Amino acid sequence: MRATLLVELLTEELPPKSLERLGEEFAARLLEALAQHQLADAAGASRCYATPRRLAARIEAVESAAMDREIEVNGPSVKVGLDPSGKPTPALQGFAKKNGVAVEALQRASTPKGEVFIARKAVKGASLDEVLAGAVEEALRKLPIARMMRWGAGEAQFVRPVHGLVMLHGNRIVPGSVLGLASGNRTRGHRFMGHGEVTLASAEDYEPSLHDEGDVIADFGTRRELIRAGLALEAQRLDATMAANDALLDEVTALVEHPSVYVGEFDPGFLEVPQECLILTMQQNQKYFPLFDSNGRLLPKFLIVSNMRLADAGNVVRGNQRVVRPRLEDARFFFRQDRKQRLESRVPQLGKVVYHNKLGTQLERVERVQLLAGRIAESVKADKLLAERAAWLAKADLLTGMVGEFPELQGVMGRYYARHDTEPAAVADAIEGHYRPRFAGDALPEGAVSTALALADKLEGLAGLFGIGEQPTGDKDPYALRRQALGVIRILIEGPVRLDLPALIREATTLLGTRLSNQAAADEVFGFVLDRLKGYLRERGYAADEIEATISVRPADLSRVVAVLEAKRAVPELADLAAANKRVRNILKKTPGEAGRIDPALLREPAEHALNAALESVAPRVRVALEAGEYAVMFRQLAGMRPEVDAFFDQVMVNADDAALRRNRLALLAEVDALMNGVLDISQLSSEAGRG
Fold first, then answer.
1. Using only C-alpha atoms, what is the Rg of the chain?
2. What is the pTM of this model?
3. In order of start, what are the domains of the chain with their CATH numbers?
4. pLDDT digits (tens, 9 = 90+) for 36-54
């Protein structure tokens, strides 16, 4: 019989931040286990349910028993299975006995490893009643759970204690025991609003029965959308707005089985505290949704997602308001206390805070960042003194009470405290901005001083950790160096900021002094940034050949990378040079060191003269266009050299017997190669992609 299968585990409150994933993985792993027993289609329909107190999976079209089938089992090779006289060896006899087949019934088959004996035997199809409990146990073992719990006197283990098990195939209870619990068809509804036990008539009745009799919305996505709509409706009613926070929405969805949204308020006097502090207090500690006015200013109101649907929610609201007040008081206390001490007075205390045992204290790091920020500021025409001042103060807020409570506010609080200390606006802004971009899609630092400090902080971090051999390996990146490298790329490209990146990296490694143990650090950091650049360009939609053409020239100035690629796309005929350029590259690779300077007196063939004339004509125009950033103009000039390049290869023997002629022709090709590949390795371009 084929029917819908339902499996539910009734538990104590599950971890909210991983609940949705646990539900999805449970359904997927259970379907996988059933498919291995031929009881369900691996690509069949399944659905997961996850609430704070239950994990469930519903799988469609599950068989009560699998069909009997014939399987083939590979045995020993013919050489091993037969002795020199052709009689079965003990190895072959043992194989036949193990599989319940007569030796005479064994067949032969060819495999990549040679001819082997095979046994064909009938296998009885699995019964759902016999394998389901084991399949559930297997699915549970494969869930991404870091730490298990035990409960009661038994040996059962799961992320939380389990108190009920439902296993229904259609309207039939599938017998079995999981985690020491016998299966049944009864579950429980909402802890407070439900009507006690809910008896399920069939697997298909699970979701509607829980809703109607248990006041539980079992589907995670449905609950999330109900909460989203409820929040939006209340915000609209209050003529307020809400900041998007999908992580908080998911967490709150995992905390309730039947959500309701209510409005709470707090004393407007707390608004003296920076709103970022109040927002984090409400979101992290209380799971509330702050409200804002049309200008983005925090209102003294918030939205509560409750697990109770009440006609009069007064007690719930008052209780939440009472709970949040001490939290807001703590924030106000930290803010007031922190401002009693100037940021600059905290800086020497950073000498007592270890940054890394091989890189010294936070104060030593601040000194390195300060020097680097000053030098970058000069390059980007920022105020050097302001950049150095901002660097000196940038980490001081790490020692404040507010950042100690909310590390996410580092930089943000530094800005507020610097403004309170009457530091220049550019310095205060740079203290906050030097952490940007903090995540994918985050805003870049604003202003030249902020930009200089942000680059200095990230490059010092990369140089320092590579300098002591702490490079990321595989998926491990404990110091978030990939994010730091991507931040550098975004600032330089999207800024845009014109800088010699390899020179800056060398400067950063030099500042490490005797702490530098990896002498190859500068080259490794630059290579690491270029590797991140590949991913950045892929995400922006550039083709593999375009990316390879960019990375191959190891661009020192990343600010022009995207503009160069866009110009390349605007001049598709440039890719027509790719084949010729590959020939140039191949010849030069085979004759390293032979090319010298071009001697016009040694030009013999008309095609040589023509290519040299084109080079002398085009080169100045290419350099002018390059300096002006007019890359499309530059590429059109280069593309115009194609007839002379093609004619040269058709009519001139580069590897002439005369050594002087050969060196002169190689010198001509070397000049052409250098001119063509200044910003892109044209030989890497695909002619098809170039025309696309």
1. 35
2. 0.83
3. 2-66+127-214 (3.30.70), 69-123 (no CATH), 220-338 (no CATH), 344-541 (1.10.3210), 559-691 (1.10.730.10)
4. 999 999 999 999 999 999 9
